[in-house]
Amino acid sequence: MKIKVMLVDDHLVVLRGLRFFLNTQPDIEVVGEVDNGSLVLKKYEELRPDVVLMDLMMPVMDGIEATKQLNELYPGVKVVVLTSYSDQDHVIPALQAGAAGYQLKDIDPDELVKTIRAAYAGEKHLHPKATHLLLTEMNNNQEKESSATVLYKLTTREKDVLYQVTLGKSNKEIAADLYISEKTVKTHVSNILSKLQVHDRTQAAIYAMKEQLFKDHSI
């Protein structure tokens, strides 16, 4: 059986070139072409391609929105993005929309065929630039999640105490500001050090400021 591919691009020369090349592959058949994202939504049900080769910048509806809507309407759809854009504003949204592959238009033709075959097999092939951006985004999300997790572990009163510590206040001053005893402050500080896995209040303050745990507070 051949892999049925649908082409989505608003440049006629690109469509013709892709159709000619892909139809030379023994296991691939181009079953349809459209020039904007809105039309692919209308034609998908009729053509039922195995893989949609999708441009991003198109009139009426761009490739990112079309990819998102295709995935909502047809879970499991295989969309391979083929575009000229390799920046974060295009790569990340396309992958978040559900793209099964991301390649640039200067790709080696044989590599494009491998990407289509991989998508059909349920695998994801990305251009190295796209991979780098995806890993960077994942690392950034992990760092954000780390900070959020730390705050989640602290009780409301512990957060109050830690914030006071970042202001350089002593236990006596914190007790007065929060209307609690110094002994209670010491207990909260001890719990904070344990949860943050630091050795003293100075390290706790540095950690809180470095991770911007209280960036929304006005000091």
UniProtKB/TrEMBL annotation:
PROSITE patterns membership: HTH_LUXR_1 (PS00622), HTH_LUXR_2 (PS50043), RESPONSE_REGULATORY (PS50110)
Organism from which the protein derives: Halobacillus campisalis
Subcellular location: Cytoplasm
Location of 4-aspartylphosphate modifications: 55
Chief place of localization: cytoplasm
All residue ranges annotated as the HTH luxR-type domain in the record: 147-212
Keywords: DNA-binding, Phosphoprotein, Transcription, Transcription regulation
Name this polypeptide is given: Response regulator
Ranges where the Response regulatory domain occurs: 4-120
Pfam families: GerE, Response_reg
